[in-house]
Design brief:
With 276 residues, the protein is of the alpha/beta class. It is built from twelve helices and eight strands. Helix 2 crosses helix 4.
Length: 276
């Protein structure tokens, strides 16, 4: 549970790293789930473009549009009052031009109500990160496995395994910090690489499938709750099996409707004969 009601903002995460206080992050896509996660003490609610896979039935995050992200961000913001709401910049939202990056990030902040945005990538997005910082939009970086690049990567594979790739990740991490990013998601990389990045940076690292040495951890809420349509990644710890519970409840409901047990029928003598 949260220890205070102070709204979490981007600079607070750096304070948490300095204090050695782990940062808890969960993804949410609607007001109900966001409220439950915030009430449980989550520091950050990420409105991930993972909504495409977790909720909308897509095979990747690539089909997710700005309109979808604004819509889900608005819902999450309505369900929160304390947690930092960070919204993903979807596929190509930041890469086409600096003007597009500003306009799209601006939509997530102005229309969606997010307090920050997240951008995947290293060197290719540095100019966009710097520009967003200049106009007053906090940016969270994202290195390692970048789901928006799944076609280029050939699948959802662990990254930074080779020494040269690990070295490049550390270079990109430092560059993102220098560009003004306030935090950095590290996804599906070896724990020792994540540990090196965490020690190297003054901004917090948020791991997902990156081992225990990051400053915080993030999981897709639906994966954590056992609500995933497909099998979650191997690094996910499921804290519930809600898909099974929901399926059983729905089956009971259908059975009661089909069997005439819901709604319950009056048992008064003769009443049933009087109803057409």
């Amino acid at each position: 549970m949260p220890t205070n009601s102070r709204p979490v903002r981007a600079p607070h995460l750096k304070e948490m790293k300095r204090r050695g206080e782990p940062i808890a992050v969960l993804t949410a896509y609607d007001a109900v789930m966001a409220r439950l996660f915030e009430q449980s003490g989550a520091d950050v609610i990420l409105v991930g473009d993972s909504v495409g896979m977790a909720v909308l039935g897509y095979a990747s995050t690539i089909p997710v549009t700005m309109a979808m992200m604004v819509h889900h961000t608005q819902a999450v913001v309505r369900g929160t009052s304390r947690a930092l709401v960070v919204a993903d910049m979807p596929f190509l939202a930041a890469q086409a031009s600096l003007a597009d990056a500003v306009l799209n990030a601006g939509r997530l902040v102005q229309e969606g109500g997010a307090a920050a945005v997240k951008i995947e990538g290293g060197q290719p997005v540095l100019a966009a990160v710097r520009r967003l910082i200049e106009v007053g939009i906090p940016v969270m970086g994202h290195l390692g496995l970048q789901p928006q690049s799944v076609n280029q990567l050939g699948g959802f594979r662990k990254q930074a395994i080779e020494r040269t790739d690990a070295d490049q990740l550390l270079i990109d991490a430092q560059a993102l910090e220098a560009a003004g990013a306030f935090a950095l998601v590290l996804e599906s990389i070896p724990p020792e690489v994540a540990a090196a990045a965490t020690q190297l940076l003054s901004i917090p690292t948020i791991g997902i499938g990156a081992g225990p040495w990051c400053d915080g951890q993030v999981l897709v809420g639906h994966d954590m709750l056992g609500l995933s349509v497909q099998a979650p990644p191997s690094f996910v710890r499921q804290y519930a099996r809600l898909a099974e519970a929901i399926g059983a409840a729905a089956a009971d409901y259908v059975s009661d409707v089909k069997g005439g047990r819901f709604p319950e029928r009056p048992v008064a003598a003769g009443l049933a004969r009087d109803v057409p």
